[in-house]
Amino acid sequence: MYKILIYVNYLQENDVDAIHPGYGFLSERSDFARACEENGITFIGPKSTVMARMGDKVEARKTAIASGLPIIPGTDQAINDAKEAKAWCEEHGAPVMLKAAYGGGGRGMRVVTRLEDVKEQFERARSEAIKAFGNGSMFIERFVVKPRHIEVQMMGDKHGNIAHFYERDCSVQRRHQKVVEIAPAPDLPTNIREAILKDAVHLCKFVGYSGAGTVEFLVEPATGQHFFMEVNARLQVEHTVSEEVTGVDLVQTQIRVAEGHSLPQLNLQQENIECRGFALQCRLTTEDPGKNFQPDSGRLEVYRSGTGFGIRCDAANAFTGARIEPYYDSLLVKIIAHSDTLRNTAMKMSRALKEFRIRGVKTNIPFLINVIEHEEFLNAAVNTGFIDDNPSLFDFRPSRNRAQKLLAYLGDVMVNGPSTPFITDIPPSVVDVKAPETPSGIHHLKLYNICLIITHEILFRCSSPRWSSSTVKA
Hints:
Blueprint: H1 2-13, E1 18-19, H2 30-38, E2 42-43, H3 48-55, H4 57-67, H5 82-92, E3 96-100, E4 109-112, H6 118-133, E5 138-142, E6 148-156, E7 162-174, E8 177-183, H7 190-207, E9 211-219, E10 226-232, H8 239-246, H9 250-258, E11 278-285, E12 287-288, E13 294-295, E14 298-299, E15 302-304, E16 311-315, E17 323-324, E18 331-339, H10 342-355, E19 357-359, H11 365-373, H12 375-378, H13 402-416, H14 442-463, H15 469-473
Parallel strand pairs: 1-2
Antiparallel strand pairs: 3-4, 3-5, 6-7, 6-9, 7-8, 8-11, 9-10, 11-18, 12-13, 14-17, 15-19, 16-18
């Protein structure tokens, strides 16, 4: 709370009248939203009371029950003791999911398949939750084996209007962290889609929700039954795919709603919101998939992003020369592709990923390409066990990095001379190059510029997909 007061004092000192919390940890802190409200600062998000109710997974669960939504069997109260957790699991059986009551993003979560592991996994999850969210409260629910993870993008105004922006499929996950998101959910039966959208709208109206948020569900493939999972009372990282398929700027809408505009005034009645085509988002991270996704850090020696029609890149610190520090989340760029069908969208995404050139740190690009090009993914036959069930996703072709190798060789020869003897006894000719008369130091600058031009040309030709290996070698 002390740090929150520091933030609020800073906002007041700089005459800030509104703040958008992004999608970091502060965006889910109801005490931060309340501090803003108490000090006359508009918090661009839900009311602090609603955030406290929906951001707490235990309270959100109680609210879902009260509103009549189907839920996964689990604890009714937050648990802070491993013995209490063990007792609940012994009564209800395994497998179970341990979840941080005040968290998200895959942190503070553990799947327990054996009762003898409950105590150890509970303590680990609790410790992780305390470090990430400042609160170690946990809750437990039955673990649904290999479900589809479907979430609904919601928006509410201050006049009681609620609208959904269709659903997203976030089933491609690793360690409960989303890797690829799809909008809308492909091959989802119409009756299940309509039921999920209806339940999401009903819950938000039940609590008087305003601002952007996400209602998340699990769909059990065997039965087709859907269960309420949680509410993220904020904008999420993957909101981009919802923007692409609906054509609505959700961040701008958040701000307009916070200003007091109603959804009808913004022409966002439900009947006016259409879903067009498919969109994918890949989270490009500075992690090495060949070393169990170990985070990497260093300097970006080369950075070039993929582009083209239907491709969007959301990046902050991604540029040549940027320092990637080990102290922050490894997310570097969000790549979003949009087209008329899932396969066409995946083709655009694959091309864009292959056009990226990032040197200096390891990235998960090879892994993402394998996911996007996998036939199960293209056939919309994925669930939360997709990555674990397909070890072939970790078969990578190493990067040849021809451009930098060629530049290193040319630089070495220019500075140190040839490393091999001449094939004849004839000495090389000596040419005395006469530089034109220029002011002191200018010719060095011109030579430097010429080197830069040559270097850029070599980089372009060696990294362009149009140039084959034989062409470069020649």
